[in-house]
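Most newcomers find our protein records easier to grasp once they have seen one. Sequence and backbone structure share a record, each on its own labelled line. To make this concrete, we reproduce a full record directly below:
***
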Amino acid sequence: MDFDSSLYERQSLFILIFLGSVFFGNIYGRFTLPLTIILLPFFAIYLRTIRFTFFSFLPLLACLPVVAQTIAGYPPRKADISVYFAFVYSSMILVGMGKSTLDDDRLRLGLIGGGLFISLVMVLSSVSLLNALDDFYEIKNSMVTPLGSSNYLAVFILFSFTVALFFSRYIVASILAIALFITFSRTGYVMFFITFCIWYVEKKITLSSGAKKILSLLSVAIIICVWILLCINVDSLPQSLANRAELWREAIDQVTRFPLFGVPRSEYLKIFNGLAWDPHNSILNLLILVGVVGLAIYGYYLYIVVSTFRKLAHDSLIWKSIYYAVSVSLIWSLFEVILLTPAYDILLAVLFCFARSREKDLGIFVSTKIQPGGV
């Protein structure tokens, strides 16, 4: 699409509003739905962005192991159904907004603006409670918005912070950093440090592509080793980390019992008498819910999404910042369930729609440029 066309100017405002709605979160009522999903039918029809491809249904196909669970005699209960919504929402976005696109400037505006918006909502909704609370976890749990609470808010604020930092919007980045700090998300603080290190290396140090790959692989290996060591050394950990590591160990045991197709979440809840809602690890969460089969399908979908971001990152600062923001959030997902949560998966799907359209536009531009006699 021609970004200078009057048609695009009209459509881009609606697409920008749609992107911003991801950061708003849920509308609570008789039925609780993300605002993005409520808006989707109207925007998709008005903007004519509907696209049907096999890839669009990959997230939904990752739910197929649920059929096997039902046949095997342990079907999901009514309370389990909500954990599969993220699969459905992703496919709905990929179909409904499949032809949507947004230029780099407006995309940057939407992502940074979204982070500032939820930061403001978080502060306004919790500021009256802070003086009345003394306990750390009471303060942490008071950070609640329609998007989510403490740790989950930190994921989206850090996403926006990454974009602002890479674009040298240091005042905005500082505001988002303060907002991240007052989420009281300790894992968020660690991910903030990792993000800053990535930005510093990109900004200040010149590395060859080969050196970057080696550094990336080494970083991933270190993170995985740290995760394994935490699982092994439960007794020597601080209480918070020890509780999390215990969840991981119990989740691994559950996965070994039902490796292929997984089990409904209610079966996992029995381990802790309903006190632990998830294993605080996205990979283990996927393995529990949909087994190796579902993880393979979802993993392939995620690989294509991240690879597309990475490809565009070579020549675009906005996509470089998105690629690194997603990469850090995937690292974070080893310690929290981030993947397979509605708002995050919706954000990934929306960004992938933009990336795919951008990739197509670039492909058309290059092919037009090299054809003899082209206009």
About this structure: Strands lie at 26-27, 33-34, 144-145, 148-149.
